[in-house]
Write a structure and sequence with these properties.
The complex is a heterodimer. Chain A is mainly alpha-helical. In chain A, about 65% of the residues lie in helices and about 0% in strands. The longest helix of chain A is centred in the first third of the chain and has 25 residues. The chains are: A mainly alpha, B alpha+beta.
């Protein structure tokens, strides 16, 4: 069903067409529910332990829907099918990110304004230094979670293509429709963001590691 | 590539976690949420759910959210009061905003609750009397939607959420202990369910479970006993009380719900 939803139908739903909205909600519910369920079950021993998982799934799924449509559908309107993500893939990334944020902080976490590509390209690339190689698995897990919270769906998509699937530059360009410069800028942006977050994590109370130079 | 060392490490961790996640909860669970499983696949997942607490949680978490949920979400997005899409919202809860965000699902679902049951005056021995409670069943298919009369039992499909509301006629800050007993083939089953109710504004109590999992497939109705934690009756005592019609004691009271049917239970 989700496969048949076009960008035009999403626009109709955002424009107040109740039939289109109902169709969109029916189509997106399993996607959101599945991602919420996975996140909740992975954290079951901590957050919300003892509560009905079914109720938590319903509440969080609804919360994600409300976030997608908040501010005149700002998040949904940012979906760009030409970047290679299906609507379901886009909403899945949004859900993962928002769910992690809600579970970690109990709050919504609106995306920060992204720096422009020009700003990115003007900044020098930074090196991770030896500290990066010795980061503990626990630190990396925490860093990955924080990174997921910070990134927009497009940023998350780029991280996935470049560093999880380790696709080549040309393949990433082909899949996203981005130029070589834009992909390069995203590499730089991701590197800088990871470095900054790594520095913040290293400075958290209880950590003896010093903040690595050049990452922030 | 030294510039990307940290990101490469993160990518490796992400890959490993994705693989572990797929091994733990494979794609069948996502298709369960989408209602796309074959009967055999669903039976496999149900068998898993019966074999471990973790799989049972997963089954509840991934079981499809139904049309009631869709209606509530649409109403919430459109900025309508949840009660606007509900046939007959109970005024006592519908006007309360306290659980609006986290509990929107609940307030909206009240409209689809089957009107039922028994009012019991709970003159509870304790720091203050318990109010009159009304027990109502929700979730599943309403009698109207299933094309049946209002006196017909409420119908559920396996995996459907079963919502039990104990609605206080007057506001209270009490939260008594409770047990839920299942009636199968006319007999109160010995093993009670002891869910943790959610206390709602006004002292209403909400219990949620899953048809066929928390609520056995053979269940025809529920008994709820409320009272002192140390004094709640077992099935035998409840059975004698029900037979005699004396549904209250010094330390507990019992409420019976209307009938229900879990489809496919034979």
């Amino acid at each position: 069903m989700l496969d048949t939803l076009s960008a035009a139908e999403v626009q109709r739903a955002l424009g107040g067409d109740s039939t289109a909205l109902a169709s969109l909600v029916r189509g997106l519910t399993p996607v959101i529910q599945g991602r919420v369920a996975r996140a909740l079950l992975a954290r079951r021993s901590g957050w919300a332990a003892g509560r009905s998982v079914r109720q938590e799934v319903e509440d969080l799924t609804q919360e994600i829907f409300l976030q997608l449509f908040a501010e005149d559908g700002k998040i949904l309107r940012s979906w760009q099918p030409e970047r290679g993500l299906s609507l379901g893939g886009f909403v899945a990334l949004v859900t993962e990110r928002q769910t992690v944020s809600i579970l970690r902080t109990g709050k919504r976490n609106p995306w920060k304004e992204e720096p422009t590509l020009v700003e990115d390209l003007d900044r020098p690339a930074t090196d991770g230094g030896p500290e990066a190689a010795t980061a503990s698995r626990e630190e990396l897990r925490l860093l990955l979670e924080r990174l997921a919270e910070e990134l927009t769906p497009l940023g998350r998509q780029l991280f996935d293509l470049l560093f999880v699937r380790e696709l080549g530059q040309e393949e990433v360009q082909r899949r996203t429709g981005l130029s070589a410069d834009a992909v390069y800028a995203w590499r730089s942006r991701l590197r800088r963001l990871a470095g900054r977050l790594y520095g913040e994590i290293s400075e958290m109370p209880g950590e003896k590691r010093t903040s690595p130079q050049g990452w922030a | 590539m030294s510039d990307d060392r940290l990101l490469s490490q993160l990518g490796k961790i992400a890959r490993e976690e994705q693989e572990a996640e797929r091994a733990r909860l494979d794609e069948r669970w996502d298709r369960l949420a989408g209602g796309e499983l074959s009967a055999d696949e669903e039976a496999e997942l149900r068998a898993l759910a019966e074999g471990s607490a973790a799989a049972r949680d997963a089954y509840q978490a991934f079981s499809p959210l139904g049309s009631d949920f869709h209606e509530r979400v649409v109403a919430a997005i459109e900025g309508k009061s949840p009660s606007a899409v509900a046939p007959s919202p109970p005024p006592a809860l519908g006007a309360r905003p306290a659980r609006r965000r986290r509990g929107l699902a609940w307030t909206a679902s009240l409209g689809s609750l089957a009107a039922t049951l028994v009012f019991v005056l709970l003159r509870f021995v304790g720091p203050g009397p318990l109010p009159i409670y009304q027990a109502e069943l929700g979730g599943g298919l309403s009698a109207e939607r299933s094309g049946q009369g209002g006196a017909e039992p409420r119908r559920y499909r396996p995996g459907d959420p079963v919502v039990l509301l104990l609605r206080a006629a007057t506001a209270t800050d009490r939260k008594p202990a409770l047990r839920v007993f299942f009636v199968c083939r006319g007999a109160i089953q010995p093993e009670p369910w002891q869910p943790e109710p959610v206390r709602l504004p006004g002292g209403n109590l909400e219990i949620r479970g899953s048809a066929g999992l928390d609520i056995p497939a053979c269940t025809e109705r529920l008994w709820v006993v409320l009272g002192r934690p140390s004094a709640l009756p077992d099935a035998a005592v409840l059975g004698r009380a029900a037979a005699s019609g004396k549904l209250e004691s010094r330390s507990w009271r019992a409420i019976q719900t209307a009938g229900l049917v879990i489809e496919g239970s034979g």
